[in-house]
Amino acid sequence: MIEFEFNREVYALPENILGENDCTYTISEQLGKGGNGIVFECENAATGEIFALKILINPKYPRSQRFQREIKVISCLSHPHIITYITHGNMSVIRKHSSSNLRNLNNQQKCIQPFVVMRKADSNLREFLTNNLSQIRFEDYYGQFVGLTRALEQLHSEARAIHRDIKPDNILISGDIWQISDFGLCAQLEGEEKHLTRADEAVGPRYWMSPEAVSKAMGLADEINCCSDLFQLASVFWFVVTHRPPIGILTIDDWSGPPSLGKLLLETLQHNSSRRPSSTAEFLKSLEDIKFA
């Protein structure tokens, strides 16, 4: 069994798990954790390939429904700039005791937790930028910007979902490809989302939330939509080029890249969503035209 601590509780996992694809995976080192789950490295027992294993540890409503929706969304997407889904399933997890009260060693609870296996990345964009403080060349980031935007357009148009959690930590780097990951907060454009998100719930990453997401968290009736994802993506692009998040009143003087790209990002970072590009497809077309400007 593999033991780990999560929210001051100690859990134990089996060393091997079986995915829906009938492949066995051996769990090894812990890679990270968030508010609702934990990520381990795992190995395909037959091929030796290394993957990332994400396990939901806090399965209460609506987290379990969101986790199942995350699996549904990423399993139907296939794009080089979206993290690759491999399989999913359920595993038996033992909650052993509270780490602050070791006298309860015999108080064990067995439960079934969902998991998803994905292609393991090398690092994330935040780590990459921290280790590369010099300005990144246009020819190095422009293709990544186009690829990430095409991936977001596929999420919007094919999966009919919005991400809501785009930030440097959730842009993973696999080789020389930047990929959108962590779809745990994604929402369908139609249907069930109103039942999973409170009217005043803060949805999105701190410092990278769109203005309408901030307003919604304050109880206002603003809608989080595709333009909100574009705002977050443009914020990340601005950060990549300037090494500063786009906070406050911005002008082209705050920009250090090609003027045509800066102009497009300033339009997409408008606080009034109606002044931004009307769709991901429109933003993508403008972005692709920049190389000819």
TrEMBL record:
ATP binds at residue 54. The keyword Transferase applies. The keyword Nucleotide-binding applies. One of its GO terms (molecular function) is kinase activity. Pfam families: Pkinase. This is Protein kinase. Keywords: ATP-binding, Kinase, Nucleotide-binding, Transferase. InterPro entries: Kinase-like_dom_sf, Prot_kinase_dom, Protein_kinase_ATP_BS. It comes from Phormidium tenue FACHB-1050. It comes from the Bacteria. Residues 25-293 form the Protein kinase domain.
